[in-house]
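tl;dr need the bound structure. longer version: we got a ligand (manganese (II) ion) that a collaborator sent over and nobodys looked at where it sits. i said id run it. heres the input, straight from their email, havent touched it
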Amino acid sequence: MRIGLAIAPETASPLAFVVFRDRLETTMEKVSRLGYDGVELALRDSNEIDVVRVRQALIQYGLEIPVISSGRVFAEGKVWFTHPDKLVRRQAVETMKGLVRLAAEFGSKVNVGRVRGFIGESESHEIAEERFLECMRDCADLAGELSVEMLIEPVNRYEINYINSVTDALEVLDKLARPNVTVMPDVFHMNIEDRSITASLKQAGARVGYVHFADSNRHAPGQGHLNFAEIVNVLKEIGYNWYVTAEILPYPDPDTAAANAIGFIRHSMYG
Ligand code: LER
Ligand code: MN
């Protein structure tokens, strides 16, 4: 398995769930020195980065971009797939398609977290889900043409009220019926929503496309009460051998958090 770190450019809101929010070159240099294999980029839209510059930095620091994540499209762009207004849904789809095209340039996958949207108080689950499925199929079909995989990330109930557990995501994947869309477990959310982290990972099996690691308090793995050795063993058991990426809060400070995360993840993998 390879180890990644979720980061964002300096243009991101301070609320973005990343350790480093800084010039990408500055962060990549640090992340590479710590021994990470890749960086997940949290972007608001595809124009936010310069492809040539980022490609040069990836080569210089020996890093990959496993995933482009889209939480900022929801939080900062304020557009999402279940939105009642068709124009807003269209904007969400166009922004996500931009991220898909960018992902094709870097050989990355594209995450769909909170940008799926929520279900309004007076709305039916079925109508909201239909809107989500239509937007998602539109993006997934472009992604398929460009050989890009998309990832549905279950997110806990305190952040969104649609697709909270891995089991929820698997049901949605069946309805979606797109082979290039998989599930992206984040063990921080699973600790809140899933009956058993290990059982849900086994249930998802080959449909796991990417994984987020954070401890129970969203600090670096090792700083809370999740059993990462057990989680890593189950990932190996189901044949998952791609990236696990630390998406953690920058405590006690960004450098320490990033160093703690890779240290503990390696320890969980190799003992
Ligand atoms: C994103 O990866 C995530 O885990 C959410 O809590 C925020 O979008
Ligand atoms: Mn996550």
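gonna send this back to them w/ a short note. The domain at 2-270 is CATH 3.20.20.150 (TIM Barrel).
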